[in-house]
Design a protein that fits this description.
Order of helices and strands: HHHHHHHHH
Radius of gyration: 19 Å
Strand content: under 5%
Number of helices: 9
Largest sheet: none
């Protein structure tokens, strides 16, 4: 969610670039969106593989449940990378952002390895497929709808902030009911963000088509959709996950 919302009044073509035919624009848009989804899906796949391998190695149980400093390095380092990518995207090269994205997906795999120690493999798989189906439907809606979803942005971001505050509070309260409410609200918020981000990413192509910024936008867009998917998966797992 690092990029600003596109404005409908802006031209399809950046200043100084030659006009494109509708066919050329549509072909370029399809290629652009396909690259975004490929990066996003590859990142999710990498995270899953790393999580399974780390959990099966026995190191995840030792480190993540051991309470040592390495646990917090693994948990907090993905957040640090997201902030670095978001605030430094204009300074970093495309290749640097790519490396940071793959590093982020790897560290997320280490951080999420604990789900394989808590939940059954069958329930994780069921939740993953349910999340995938929901994500595809919501993203398709965001891509095809003629309704302007830009007004959702502020509301959804405020929801994310409120969700984080509630999660911190519940660390101390340890309320089962509050955990249930947080999970339900989290699913709804990131469902909305999936549709919102998809439309925003689609419209962003109008700004970057034919410029050297397109590579960076693809990576940052993939990061946004990755975060939507992973967060929706984790909140759904609270409902659908069966513990060992």
């Amino acid at each position: 969610m690092a990029w600003p919302d596109p404005r409908a009044t802006m031209s399809r073509n950046p200043v100084g670039t030659a006009p494109q035919s509708d066919a050329a624009y549509d072909a370029g848009l399809r290629t652009y969106m396909l690259k975004v989804y490929n990066y996003m899906a590859s990142g999710v796949l990498l995270t899953g593989i790393v999580a399974m391998l780390f959990a099966s190695s026995g190191m995840a149980a030792e480190i993540m449940f051991g309470g040592g400093p390495l646990k917090w390095v693994i948990i907090l380092s993905p957040l640090a990378i997201v902030f670095a990518m978001s605030f430094g995207q204009n300074k970093f090269s495309t290749m640097t952002l790519q490396a940071m994205f793959w590093g982020f997906a790897t560290l997320m795999g280490l951080s999420m390895s604990t789900i394989f120690l808590v939940y059954t493999g069958a329930s994780i798989a069921q939740t993953f497929f349910a999340t995938s189906a929901a994500f595809l439907g919501l993203s398709l809606y965001g891509y095809t709808t003629k309704k302007d979803l830009s007004g959702w942005g502020s509301f959804l971001i405020m929801g994310v902030i409120g969700l984080l505050v509630a999660m911190v509070i519940n660390i101390f309260l340890q309320s089962t009911m509050m955990h249930f409410v947080i999970s339900a609200v989290g699913v709804l918020i990131f469902a909305g963000l999936t549709a919102y981000d998809t439309q925003r990413i689609k419209n962003m192509y109008s700004y970057v088509a034919g410029t050297d910024m397109v590579g960076k936008v693809i990576i940052m867009s993939a990061l946004s959709l990755y975060l939507d998917f992973i967060n929706m998966f984790q909140f759904l797992l609270s409902f659908m996950g069966s513990q060992d």
